[in-house]
């Protein structure tokens, strides 16, 4: 009868572990104990295993796995079984509560002439390897945890609405945000940036055509530059005057348009600024309400 010893005659660690757990037959156990009495290194291994066994014995009983985690693990294992074990007839099942696993299993015969790959030996009760199941369970648990974290991150990103946008759908900046306190400054800036007419002033009733002084050639006056304003916003202002300047932005959390027109009272030294609700740009059924209107000096 052979024993699981190495070339130096020492038993392997697994067999020493079985001795510590009382899994060997009396005959084999007595043989190992005699060896331990004369081998300091094997005796140290045996003492370490007994210490580990005593520490494990102080741990509490099995804890119940949370139901949602158990359901996810069961679903993941079922999917894994369907894809990777299509030809197998046995299916694995994971219990919701951890339980002690019997170490008594049937020995697996090895072909003749093959090197011994298991740690079973004479007088030892054989046990089947459980490393693969543990790896699968741990891998599945980590996968479920990673999926949970990813879901939380996606929900957080989805709930984050980001910065306000203007009536044109672009992110609003501080310069695009209108307020009553800074409206005059913004109107002055718009008038400064607004394109000017490059032609000379046109005399009244000239119809845009006038002869140059000292020449018979007619001079064609250039028309005033136009400023683009959405039609619904112009309807909300209800004015036929041509806009001098306009800009999209936000006011009090709403999409708004700042439109600068010539003074409503006809004063050429002043202008009238209208702040109009621009919701109608994307929702035509919404009315273009005038939120603010003020008269300011023309720069």
In terms of topology, how is this protein built?
Blueprint: H1 13-21, H2 26-38, H3 40-57, H4 67-84, H5 131-159, E1 177-178, H6 183-193, E2 209-211, E3 218-220, H7 231-237, E4 245-251, E5 254-262, E6 270-277, E7 290-297
Parallel strand pairs: 1-4
Antiparallel strand pairs: 2-3, 4-5, 5-6, 6-7
Helix content: 25-40%
Structural class: alpha+beta
Number of domains: 3
Shape: rod-shaped
**Chain-averaged pLDDT:** 72
Q: β content, as a range? A: 5-15%
Please give the radius of gyration in angstroms. 44 Å
With strands numbered from the N-terminus, the spatial order across the biggest sheet is 1-4-5-6-7
Q: Classify the oligomer.
A: single chain
Alpha-carbon distance between the two ends: 111 Å
Q: What would a concise description of this structure say?
A:
This protein folds into 3 domains: 1-61, Orthogonal Bundle (Arc Repressor Mutant, subunit A); 63-98 and 130-160, no CATH class; 174-195 and 218-297, no CATH class. It is built from 7 helices and 7 strands; from the N terminus they run αααααβαββαββββ. The chain has helices spanning 13-21, 26-38, 40-57, 67-84, 131-159, 183-193, 231-237; strands at residues 177-178, 209-211, 218-220, 245-251, 254-262, 270-277, 290-297.
């Amino acid at each position: 009868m052979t024993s699981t010893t190495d070339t130096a005659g020492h038993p392997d660690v697994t067999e020493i572990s079985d001795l510590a757990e009382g899994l060997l037959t009396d005959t084999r156990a007595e043989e190992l104990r005699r060896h331990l009495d004369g081998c300091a290194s094997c005796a140290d291994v045996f003492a370490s295993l007994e210490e580990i066994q005593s520490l494990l014995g102080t741990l509490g009983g099995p804890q119940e796995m949370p139901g949602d985690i158990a359901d996810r693990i069961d679903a993941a294992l079922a999917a894994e079984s369907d894809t990777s074990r299509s030809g197998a007839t046995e299916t694995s099942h994971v219990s919701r509560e951890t339980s002690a696993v019997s170490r008594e299993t049937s020995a697996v015969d090895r072909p003749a002439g093959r090197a011994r790959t298991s740690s079973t030996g004479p007088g030892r009760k054989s046990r089947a390897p459980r490393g693969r199941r543990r790896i699968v369970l741990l891998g599945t648990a980590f996968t479920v945890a990673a999926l949970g974290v990813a879901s939380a991150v996606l929900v957080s990103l989805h709930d984050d609405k980001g910065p306000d946008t203007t009536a044109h759908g672009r992110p609003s900046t501080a310069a695009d945000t209108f307020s009553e306190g800074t409206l005059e400054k913004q109107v002055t800036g718009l008038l400064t940036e607004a394109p000017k007419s490059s032609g000379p002033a046109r005399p009244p009733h000239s119809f845009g055509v006038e002869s140059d002084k000292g020449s018979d050639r007619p001079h064609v006056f250039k028309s005033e530059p136009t400023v683009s304003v959405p039609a619904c916003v112009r309807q909300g202002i209800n004015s036929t005057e041509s806009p001098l300047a306009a800009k999209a932005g936000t006011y009090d959390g709403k999409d708004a348009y700042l439109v600068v027109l010539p003074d409503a009272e006809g004063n050429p030294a002043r202008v009238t600024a209208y702040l109009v609700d621009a919701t109608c740009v994307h929702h035509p059924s919404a009315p273009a309400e005038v939120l603010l209107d003020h008269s300011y000096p023309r720069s």
